[in-house]
Amino acid sequence: MEREHEIAVIGAGPAGAVAALQACRLGLGPVLLLDKAPLGRQKPCGSGLSPRAMKLLADLGLWQHIESRAYPISGLALTSPSGRSASVSGKASAVVLPRAELDRLLVQQAVAAGARFEPGCRVRRIERRAGLLELETDVGPVAARWVVAADGAPARFSRDPSPRRLLLARMGWFEGRGFRPHTLEMIFHPDWAPHYGWLFPESEQSFNIGVCLRAEKLGRRSLRRLFDAFAERCFGERLASARQIGPLRSHPISTAVLVRHRAPPGVLLAGEAARLANPATGEGISYAMESGRLAAEAILRGRQRCMPAEAVAAGYASSLRRAVTPGFAAAELFCRLGMPVLDAITRLGGLAAVRRLSSDFLSRI
Asked: How confident is the model at residue 1 (pLDDT cuts 50, 70, 90)?
């Protein structure tokens, strides 16, 4: 392995892979992309690509690689906290692509652009020595001028002292026809609101289901039992004829409304390591990819202008805030005021105007 790199990226999910890809495209090599696990492992993620994610992929010139593989979503079956239901449909406005496939594709593009990928390589520690960042890894020391830390919710290299806002999620994957084709199902349970349970189709024969709620709403309850009860109550008959694929998985989602960037000099946090997940939906793929791109662009500006590491980090944090704050603020407003709106949508769902508004909502999730 080369000992010295311009950029070392920790984590080969959407944030890290896009950071490596964009860095190579900008001529910032050599770029080393590290991940603690082999490429293509199944991750606990609903795998939905929102319109925002789709646009980012198009901007990166990657949409053509995604479109033929992804499963289009054109319908929404919504159940409000009051128990009322409504269904809307329209043009395809989101897609689902399993995270294993998305991650593999993004890493392949980064490698094709010139990045070196080292799977099965955990980073133990980062120290600054002689003007470089030295990473202690499973395969020996690695030196880099910059590090993009995209290691997800654990955020081992973050220095943000503020308490984390956590959503807790549990989900599983199934094979069978126990779902409405091309339709996302969202069920807002009164005990969990403003969060929800879901069913995402992944193909003509497979789907995933899950629950997501604020950590404080779980209290002393078991997330495993809560998921089991939800799955039986809402999908029991359909699951009876389906086959479970792999184990059920639980995971935390680290969210924020105000973006703060606290990291050692020379380290830029990306994706969930910077708490970039939508506080209403838990969606993080689009924010991860955008932060990876912005991190590479911030490093390029710093090199062109001979900026100190602290100034580069400040500029990066500012660009993150401009990119995500409007969406996060709207999500937080939905968390506070959105449940009566959902009840109104389901109560008046037969009206054409409401169906049009609901279809517009679907196009923006």
From this structure: very low
